[in-house]
Amino acid sequence: MSVRPFRIDVSDAVLDDLRARLLNSRFTTASSDEHWAGGTDPGYLRDLVAHWAGGFDWRAAEARLNSFPQFLAEIGGRDVHFVHVRSKAAEGALPLVLTHGWPSSFVEMLPLVGPLTDPAAHGLDPSVSFDVVIPSLPGFAWSQTMAGHFTRGGVADLWHELLTGVLGYERYGVFGGDIGGGVSMRTATQYPDSVVGVHTIHPPFPGKFDPEPTAEEEAFMAAEKAYDVNDQGYSEIMWSRPDTIGAALIDSPAGLAAWIVDKYHDWTDDFAATWDHDTLLTMLTVYWASGSIGTSFRQYFDYEHNKPGSPITVPTAVTLSHEPVMANFPRSIAERASTDLRHWSEPKRGGHFLPIEEPELVAGELRTFFGPLR
């Protein structure tokens, strides 16, 4: 295993090619007079692409990202990209792994770094601080794809090796949502002697319901299924034909933007407040410059290779995201999956990308849960 410093350094040639493609973009006609009814609104997309081509300063965004120390660790012959920021507080900081989901990246977690690693500078109690590790999932940003199938358990193995074998930590906490939540839960079940606690914004599901679901649980699952009827078109094609859609999106930055912005708009609690053009384009340019949109689909294509989850026995916390698919989530479902559910919070704000939507809220929740576990 080896670790080497990493800096994002997108070449001028890549940026020039990106700008040329943006300037030559073609746009579809809206399918409805109702904005966003048929997916990403063409008028919004046209404005976003124009700003990407002529107003967005990637070099400034790149410098901001590079202000966070980044590394590549070779694990099993594959590079894992990660941010690693040590606590500025006293000794004894808890290592904490923050894992993003799709369509996201390590960028989502960066607003948490300051409050968690330097609490005194943010007016917080310096006695609760963390060493923060933010890996890019395999096939995302500058992490290479996995050697075998992308499974949450396989990523958990990578994360454990990164934390213990590479960085030398013995005990650590895990946090995430979406895929990152699944990876965090698998890390907790596979390495309970090392994981002090798991915190997620999307609650755990049991591998099977025994006894049978209650009426409240049945109602939630029926509502979730009904929501997916209009929402899951994106996942159906990524499960079944990732290389087909990937070919289109890796060739067209406007298409890439439309594909990703559609989910940001639907899954963010307050889209306009969270995703100003520059924040959105930073995320999009990471996907474009790293050429990772197609490989980010691997976890969908390989989904059937995930094994049923085991009960989580380490301390567990849920800060429930405020998005339609999570509405009325019964705590009892999470209690079926976790034998030690210690913290349950429903803040009623902040959606699928909670760390970037409500970083102060998330940092507070993490401090509250992990503080006593250090």
UniProtKB/TrEMBL annotation:
**Which positions fall inside the Epoxide hydrolase N-terminal domain?**
3-109
Coiled-coil zones: none
* Recorded superkingdom: Bacteria
A family per Pfam: EHN
- What is the active site of this protein? D178 (nucleophile), Y300 (proton donor), H352 (proton acceptor)
Q: Give one GO biological process term.
A: epoxide metabolic process
> GO molecular-function annotation terms?
epoxide hydrolase activity
Q: Does Hydrolase count among this protein's keywords?
A: yes
Q: Which UniProt keywords apply?
A: Aromatic hydrocarbons catabolism, Hydrolase
- PANTHER family annotated for this entry? EPOXIDE HYDROLASE, EPOXIDE HYDROLASE 1-RELATED
In Swiss-Prot or TrEMBL terms, this protein is called Pimeloyl-ACP methyl ester carboxylesterase
Give the source species: Phytomonospora endophytica
